[in-house]
Design goal:
The chain is an all-alpha fold. The chain has two helices and no strands. Helices cover about 60% and strands about 0% of the residues.
Length: about 80
């Protein structure tokens, strides 16, 4: 008798869990109306200019080369 009661309880719990899952999934059906305007300020930001990226990349490469060379010193020069 106890086993039948446990099985019935498990079925009831499973039924309500399935109904809750269905309700959550059904709630996701509504379409969102989102209007995103990235140019609301009128003027573009400095990082949207390709020239800024080219100049930044050139400075980064120059610094990278300068650091990796170590100022042109070698162990034999000391």
């Amino acid at each position: 008798m106890e086993q039948k009661l446990k099985n019935a309880w498990n079925r009831i719990v499973l039924f309500f869990a399935a109904m809750l899952g269905h309700a959550v999934a059904f709630a996701q059906e509504k379409e969102l109306d989102v209007n995103v305007d990235i140019n609301s300020g009128g003027e573009a930001a400095w990082y949207s200019n390709p020239v800024a990226w080219v100049v930044g990349a050139a400075i980064f490469i120059i610094l990278l080369v300068a650091v990796s060379r170590g100022g042109g010193r070698t162990t034999a020069d000391r």
